[in-house]
Amino acid sequence: MIGAAYSIPSVLVFVTSAMLILVGAIGVISVKNPVHAALCLIMTLFGVAVAFVAQSADFLAAVQIIVYAGAIVVLFLFVIMFLGVDRREHIHFEPLVGQRAFAAVGVAITVGGLIALMARSHWVSGASSVTTKLSSGGGNVKELGTAVFTTYLFAFEATAALLIIAVVGAVLLARRESATQGEESA
Amino acid sequence: MATVATLLLLMPLLGFLSVLLLGRYMSEKQVGVVGTGVVAASFVLAVITFFMLIHHSSREVTVNLFSWISVGTLHVPAAMLVDPLSITMCLFVTGISALIHLYSTGYMHGEKDFRKFFLYLNLFVFSMLLLVLANNLVLTFVGWEGVGLCSYWLVSYYFDRDSAASAGKKAFIYNRVGDVGMLIAMFLLFSRLHTLTYLTIFERSGTLTPMIATLVVLALLLAATGKSAQIPLFNWLPDAMEGPTPVSALIHAATMVTAGVYLLVRMSPVLALSHSGRMTIAVIGGVTAFVAATIATSQKDIKKVLAFSTISQIGYMVLAVGVGAYGAAIFLMIAHAFFKALLFLGSGSVIHSLNGEQDMRKMGGLQKYLPLTFPTFLIGWLAISGIPPFAGFWSKGDVLTNVFEHNKALWALGVLTAILTAYYMSRLFILTFRGTERFRAETEGHDPHESPWVMTTPLVVLAALTVVGGILDLPWVHHDSLAGFLAPTFGYVAAGGHADTVAQYGLALVDVAAALFGLLAAYSIWRNISESKRWESPFLEHVWHWDDFYDATIGRPLTEAARFGDDVIEPEVIDGAITGLAVSVRRSAEGLRKVQSGFVRHYALATVLGLAVVIVFLVARVG
Amino acid sequence: MNVPAAWYLVLAAGLFGIGAFGLLTRRSALIMFMCIELMLNAVNLTFVTFSRTLNDISGQAIVFFVMVVAAAEVTVGLGIVVAVFRRRSSTSVDELSEMKG
Fold first, then answer.
1. Cβ atoms within 10 A of the Cβ of C55, count?
2. Which are the contacts of B578, defined by CB distance < 8 A and separation ≥ 6?
3. pLDDT surpasses 70 at A131
4. Does A113 reside within a domain?
5. CA neighbor of B27 nearest in space, from B91, B86, B115, B117
6. B189 with B214: CB under 8 angstroms?
7. Which residues of C touch A56 (CB under 8 A)?
8. CA-to-CA distance for B320 and C31, rounded, in angstroms?
9. Please, which residues 588-617 of chain B have a Cβ atom closer than 8 Å to chain A?
10. CA-based R_g, chain A, Å
11. Residue A133 falls inside a structural domain
12. Among B540, B437, B544, which Cα is nearest to B532's?
């Protein structure tokens, strides 16, 4: 069937990643327990990492696992436990009228439109690279590193600053108010 | 000649300005002298101009003062046209005005607003001269409005009297309605002929279609009925008698009310183009003359009788214009000016002697107390009744002869009116001067006294003019007469034919018979009584209920409409629209406010829906 | 022949849709955050796919930065969640509706 036109390994990899992603995503949006939702999220993230590898984005796949699955989801779990695991929501009851219907319609149109755009446009043209070739020797890491530290250096520095600001902000936000009145440190 | 003519026009204006600016420093006598003096000077200048015109090479002299309006194709100069018609009008306007100014110094003596009176009177004379001397319709209109305005001021001279204030307003408003006609005529003429100057209009008038010409004529007729108090705009004149008697004499007998006739006569070349227009004019004139005469038979106030008499006589003039007898119309205008001014001033003298009484039922037997007023009034009475050899007989006869040649029905109406004229004037004369004395209560037992010389002199002069005035246009004199003098002005129009001599004598006899019949009828009825239900019908006394008719059809509906506008339209429609706008804005704001529900998920939903719209748009564009 | 890029793009679109639907439908703040992460991953997948298709490293560079920003965002976001819901008994965002009108 499909195998006639495309190589089997690539198809297998695609199917694997697709399964992981979709099951995980549907799990995230439908389970009641937030811890279970976090675990489903990890599944999705792994599926995305697999897709990255299939697309020759090795470095990014690694970063995905380390940062996303390793740090961000852990952060999520910490907060879940901090706020109480047993806080659940009632899924079947929707207080806002028409929210689900409109959401379904909106999302359907969006996704449908995206797919239609893809089908009708001529983006996928296989044009030669604009900035740097994807893999012109030296491997993916080297290419990516060169791009980040030369062409996109300013963005790199800006995001570094952003991270520091984010950390400071998070600390401030989560700080518990002092019990005594006069103890307000800046 | 230009300087003389310009001075002639500006003298009264000079008088007006002097009294306006310096009046408070001048004594009553000085104001009187200045006011009368400038008008008398104007008269002298008019005489000089007249002689200059006769010896001038052309009978139409245009005196350009300055260029007033010059916009695109519209050129309106401030210029005067000195020709036989205008100089004739100037002569009798300034002459009679001067006499009345003199009279007023005596009549208005002691009034607290003496200066104001002369102020307005001078301004009036200026406006009238402007009207008559202008060489284009716009400048005439300026004068037209000016005389209307002065008339309003002078009628409401005793403004603290409600009736006087209302009468002033009534006069002005009726005039205004007529002015619409003048404006329409001007618009039509300009749109077709691209000029408003008389001489140019006459040159180009041939290009007017009969329909347009008729419209113009009817519009001019409307204006004339307003100013000259003809049907349907005549009710203001009787009410205007609220003004002081000299005002009634000057404005509402001799000058302003003739302005309408003047306008029609001036525009005679245009009138010549429309037979139906002229017919309408003639019918209006004839019917007005008759109706007014019937009303005059039942009035109790001496001035009201004279007012309706004026309307009736002007009806004759309009009738003459309608049949094309312009010369006859002007002749009657002049003769009427003489004897009507005489009658009004005489009545003023009578009223003055009786300390302000105007009701004829309280007069009588004044013959022996007013040795100068009586004979002069008698002459005026005989003249207006049409007794030869006074001016009235010749002028009215001239008109009726011309009417006879064109329309027998209107002629019969004219003769009937002549009978009525003789009748009501004789009634007036008898009730006032003859019969028993009924005024003792008013004068508190004193004898009425004759008026001072400033008042009686004009009476004498006018009486003399009335006696000899006939020679202006005797029927057997063709070339040196008034009609002959005026002929070049009407040269564009075919001259009215003259009936043969036998018919003329026959008609003259009819006129005399009519006059005598009316006179004798009055004598026999009114010799011994001062009031009679049988001969004074309330219907006639109430002006054929014309005022009530206008009130019911126009006055009250308009007032109701105004009240409706105030009570309904103003609060509900206009205010409603504005508050409605505000209310709808507020309501829509309240509705829109609900979008901000406070729920984050709603906002997220909105974002996603917006995204969906954008993507659909992109798909549509790419596709 | 490799699987055509279009398949991965469709997959990414689907992931994005699921994430969006979950964001609009779930009331728990934490779950909503996870849905946002789903959407971001969909975007990353798209960029990487295009990077491969167009043979350009820029796509991957962008993904690099998206991940950084996502990390920062989660940090601050969860800080806010903690600050807001510390004293409440439920994590439902529907309760935070005082800014209405």
1. 19
2. none
3. no
4. no
5. B115
6. no
7. 52
8. 107
9. 599, 601-602, 605, 608-609, 611-612, 615-616
10. 22
11. no
12. B540
Please, what sign has the CA dihedral across residues A143, A147, A153, A158?
negative
Task: Spell out which residues of chain B touch residue C101, defining contact as CB-CB under 8 Å.
Answer: 593, 596, 598
Which pairs with CB-CB distance under 8 Å and at least 24 residues apart come from B211-216? B212/B188, B213/B270, B213/B273, B213/B274, B213/B277, B214/B274, B214/B276, B214/B277, B215/B184, B215/B188, B216/B185, B216/B188, B216/B189, B216/B267, B216/B270, B216/B274, B216/B277
Q: Which residues of C touch B600 (CB under 8 A)?
A: 93, 96
User: What tokens appear for B204 in the block?
Assistant: 């180009």
Range of the domain at A39: 1-88+122-127
Interface predicted TM-score (ipTM) of this complex, two decimals: 0.91
Q: Which CATH number goes with the domain that contains A38?
A: 1.20.120.1200
Residue in the block written with tokens 């019937």: B294
Q: How far apart are CA A99 and CA A12, in angstroms?
A: 38
Whether residue A107 lies inside any domain: the answer is no
Write out the two tokens for C46: 């798209």
Mean pLDDT of A8-27: 92
Residue A179 Cα, gap to closest chain C Cα (Å): 15
pTM assigned to the model: 0.68
Contact B354, B439 (CB under 8 A): yes
CB B419 within 8 A of CB B518: yes
Token digits of residue B95: 């002459």
B292, B312 in Cβ contact below 8 A? yes
Task: Characterize the bridge pairing of strands B74-82 and B61-71.
Answer: antiparallel
Measured CA to CA, the distance from residue B57 to residue B48 in angstroms comes to 16
* Token pair belonging to C36: 């946002």
- B277-297 in b/e form (b: 16+ CB < 10 A) is bbbbbbbbbbbbbbbbbbbbb
Q: How far apart are CA A152 and CA A160, in angstroms?
A: 13
Among chain A residues, the shortest Cα distance to B609 is held by A106
Instruction: Please write the tens of the pLDDT for every residue from B387-423.
Output: 887 888 888 888 888 888 888 888 888 999 999 999 8
Quick one: which H or E segment has residue B170? helix B162-193
Tokens representing residue B179 in the block:
């002015």
Residue identified by tokens 């704001």 is B589
- Contact predicate B117/B48, CB 8 Å: no
Nearest 5°: the CA angle B214, B255, B1 is: 90
Contact with chain A for residue C66, Cβ under 8 A: no
Partner B contacted by A101 (CB < 8 A):
no
Answer whether residue A19 is part of any domain.
yes
Total number of domains in chain A: 2
Nearest residue of chain A to residue B610 (CA atoms) = A106
The ranges of chain B with pLDDT < 70 are 442-445, 473-481, 483-484, 487-501, 530, 532-534, 623
By the 8 A CB rule, do B190 and B74 touch?
yes
Burial of B86 (0-12, 13-18, 19+ CB in 10 A): buried
C89 to chain A: closest CA residue? A87
Longest CA–CA span in chain B (Å) reads 116
